[in-house]
Structures are given as C-alpha cells and as structure tokens.
Write a structure and sequence with these properties.
about 40% helix, about 15% strand, binds 5,10-methenyl-6,7,8-trihydrofolic acid, binds 3-methyl-2-oxobutanoic acid, binds magnesium ion, 3-methyl-2-oxobutanoate hydroxymethyltransferase activity, Pantoate_hydroxy_MeTrfase, transferase, Pyrv_kinase-like_dom_sf, EC 2.1.2.11
C-alpha cells in the first residue's frame, strides 16, 4: 500500500499555499537514497537533486560536465527515498538551451526515467519558449535566476549578481516571464536581499533563496555544505549545522586503529 495514502506528499499547490500563508519553504539538495531517506524523515519540504552533484558527488570544478544520464541516476535514487517530500531535479547544462524539441525530450526523459515530481532550469527570457513547451506538456518547472552556475564561464566568477540597476531590472523581467510561462517556483541565487524581497513580493509563485536573504518564500542549501562534509566551500551565506567532516574523520581514525590493533572485530562481531 502506498505511503502517500497516509502521508500527504508536498505538491506544487501545497508550496504555493505555504507562500500565501507565510509559511517558509525548506529545501535541501540530495543525491543518493540513504541521505534522501534521512532528509525526508526529518521533514524537509523539497529535495533538490542539484547538478551540484557534479561538484560534491563527482569532484568536478563546475556543474558543466554532469550528463543527463548521471542526473537521472541520482534523481531516481532520491525519488525512491522520498515519501513526503517533493523531489525536483536539475536538468544539466546543454540539455535545454537549444531547440525546444530537445529540451522537451530531456525533460520527458527525466520525468519518465527518474520518477521526480518536477524539474529545474537555469535562465530567464532566453529559454522561455522551451519552458512553455515543457510546462504545457504537464511537467512542473522551477526557474533559477541570479547566480546560475551553468553560465559560470560567461560571468567569470561566483560573485553576487544583480547589484547594478540594469541587471536587477533584467532579473525582475526574467522572474515575471518565468511566472507567466507557468513556472511553479523560482530559485534566486546570490543576489542582494532587498532585490530578492522585491521579487518575492512581486511574484505570486514562491521564491526559494540561496544567498538571497530571508525575505524569500523559502531557502535552499547544498546538504553536504550545511552538514559540514564539504571542506573548502565556506561562502558568507552558508550556515554549517554540523561538522560532519570532523565526526567522520574521528570515526574512521578509530576504525583504522581498531583494525590495526586487532580490536575489530571482537568475539561478538564474528561467527
Ligand atoms: N558545494 C556546493 N555548494 C553550492 O552551494 C553550490 C555548488 N556546490 N555547486 C553549484 C552551485 C555553485 N554555487 C555557488 C558557488 C560559489 C559561491 C560563492 O559564494 N563562492 C565564493 C565567493 C566567490 C566570489 O565572491 O567571487 C566563496 O566565498 O566561497 C556561491 C554559490 C552554489 N552551488
Ligand atoms: C544550489 C542549488 C539551487 C542548485 O541548483 C544545485 O544544488 O545544483
Ligand atoms: Mg543546480
């Protein structure tokens, strides 16, 4: 019997209601089944299978190399774990910026083969026709504006976006276009808090911020960062809730020492 008969799944309409009620939306990334089980049980509203898997899972410097097949593999693992959370997967670089037909096919493959509930795409007016086609086919789409890591070589750095009036005006225009195209939410990454507040007020759909202040309708962090597994990455917006890197280091050192000293396994740990 499906768990969903007892535990209500978070849907696009539920997160819209959250915005209307003023209940903030919590989102964390997730790339594997075991972690996703823990996050789902802990009550996170949305699990994002981010293309940041390229960085934190695979060790690439940027998000560009991860493939659609890679993303489907991660997304299917997370989708199998999520009982209550809504699961969103990033479409990777190169799969949705070209012909509408190609973008549509990539979105359909992600939905069919992974079992996630929605997809996320970086960009605004440039990809609006592709977003419309995907939304019209029944696939919920989340937008992503501000710092868009798939365009890192265009921007050249990971600095704060839309600090200047012209870029802020373009971001607002993009946000309205995404809403108009039927996106159910939009991620705002590394933009001034005041601008994120204005956009959140302007839009009917929820905004989910990362490095975008507390006036957004929700927040997202990379789970490896907030648990302190990631070691080098410490931007100002990140709050580290655990130092898991240190905890794991201690545990592994103890294990190695126990093996060396023949203290593991003991009598009760063998047959
Ligand atoms: N581990 C991880 N966490 C993330 O939040 C994340 C990824 N990877 N990969 C994909 C994108 C890239 N993101 C980023 C990348 C860099 C900064 C950042 O603030 N970097 C520098 C500052 C650079 C600058 O100011 O020019 C820092 O302080 O670490 C923020 C978000 C967010 N996403
Ligand atoms: C940082 C979030 C928003 C993301 O897109 C990712 O993890 O890939
Ligand atoms: Mg991403």
């Amino acid at each position: 019997m499906s768990v969903n008969k007892v535990i209500k799944r978070i849907t696009t309409s539920i997160i819209r209601d959250m915005k209307n009620r003023g209940e903030k939306i919590s989102m964390l990334t997730s790339y594997d089944y075991s972690t996703a089980r823990i996050l789902d049980d802990a009550g996170v509203d949305i699990l994002l299978v981010g293309d940041s898997a390229a960085n934190v899972f695979a060790g690439f410097e940027t998000t560009l190399p991860i493939t659609l097949d890679n993303m489907i593999y991660h997304a299917s693992a997370v989708a199998r774990a999520a009982k209550r959370s809504m699961v969103i997967a990033d479409l990777p670089f190169g799969e949705y910026q070209g012909a509408t037909e190609d973008a549509y096919k990539a979105a359909v493959r992600m939905m069919k083969e992974s079992g996630v509930h929605a997809i996320k795409l970086e960009g605004g007016t440039e990809i609006i026709d592709n977003i419309k086609k995907i939304v019209q086919s029944g696939i919920p789409v989340c937008g992503h504006l501000g710092l868009t890591p798939q365009s890192i070589y265009k921007f050249g750095d990971f600095g704060v976006r839309a600090k200047e009036d012209a870029e802020a005006a373009k971001l607002k225009e993009d946000a309205l276009a995404l809403q108009e195209a039927g996106c159910f939410a939009v991620v705002l990454e590394k933009i001034p808090a005041a601008l994120a507040g204005e956009v959140s007020k302007m839009l009917d759909i929820p905004t989910i911020g990362i490095g975008a202040g507390n006036l957004c309708d929700g927040q997202v962090l990379v789970v490896n960062d907030m648990l302190g597994i990631t070691q080098e990455f410490k931007p100002k917006f990140l709050r580290q809730y655990l130092n898991l890197n240190e905890e794991i280091n201690k545990a592994v050192k103890q294990y190695v020492a126990d093996v060396k000293a023949q203290k593991y396994p003991n009598e009760s740990e063998q047959y």
